[in-house]
Design a protein that fits this description.
The structure is a homodimer.
Chain A: H1 4-18, H2 27-34, H3 38-50, E1 54-57, E2 63-66, H4 75-83, H5 110-127, H6 131-135
Antiparallel strand pairs in A: 1-2
Chain A binds a DNA duplex through residues 3-5, 26-28, 37, 39-40, 42-43, 45-46, 49, 56-64.
DNA sequence: CTAATTCCTAGTAAATCGATAGAATTAATA
DNA sequence: TATTAATTCTATCGATTTACTAGGAATTAG
């Protein structure tokens, strides 16, 4: 399941993607437009900025705008940024790999094999969902 | 991600599936065999019993045994029993549906459409992973 | 200088998670 | 029938995470 943070991030990105190019959106504008608690959204936008999905202009008349093409922002990336691993267990994860402490020998962990299969399919599906693909609906 | 409960449940089911037919496994035996905290495993086995995956015999020489074919126990079912929805948001879930409080009109929620697509693919993949398919490795 | 905005750091209440404790219940068998 | 070994049930605990909120510092346009 997605955290609220991840959901709000996606909604905020969708909002930004729907604006005219060169338009700068204030936090409050996004919060109202996408129904997101404003102070919470502030943090989320900062995270998106650190992740180089958006950039900002400070001070009066400042705000946020996309710096990554909406075709290149995938659900998989947003999931990873806010909720971490896409795999069902860390031992089956590409980006957040950690061995299981309770598995005696990993090569023999039959569960892991199955979970890596799931991971590959889920990942592929999530990489196919882009902000652009969602906006055009 | 799977909770420890779900992971332990899968490991316990794998353990049971590997035993001879008609063999009854005590909790402590499963706990040792699959490296699961015994008291925690107790709860998990009760959950699996309520879910009609296993049954138990009480008293001396009691224990647990599979009552569902290993071909019919899927990762999807275990995920649902212990961790709930497979979809990324409740509004995109089949079995745990709930509307989003922050979406103005659901039909217009472009995010939901994408998440239902992911759900279908993930679900299909998870239904393909059975205890039997994991044991034979 | 002032107003409007992002940026930063804490804090907090509630829920969830992983696990433990202990007593009640059940059943085999000596 | 008493003993013993097992499941079953209920309650609780501490740590972590989640979803926010609060307050103010820094920045910028006019």
């Amino acid at each position: 399941m997605l955290s609220h943070k991840a959901k709000y991030a996606l909604k905020a990105l969708l909002y930004l993607a729907e604006q005219d190019e060169n338009h700068i959106s204030r936090t409050i504008e996004i919060a109202d437009g996408a129904n997101i608690p404003k102070k919470f959204l502030e943090q989320i936008l900062l995270d998106l900025k650190r992740g180089r999905f958006v950039s900002s202009k400070q001070g009066k008349f400042g705000g946020y705008y996309l710096i990554k093409s909406k075709n290149d922002i995938t659900l998989a990336e947003i999931h990873r940024l806010f909720d971490g691993a896409i795999a069902l267990l860390p031992c089956a994860s590409l980006n957040f790999y950690e061995p299981c402490s309770d598995c005696k020998t990993e090569s023999e962990c039959s569960l892991r094999q199955g979970l890596m299969l799931i991971r590959d399919k889920t990942l592929k599906a999530m990489e196919g969902i882009t902000i652009a693909s969602l906006v055009n609906k």
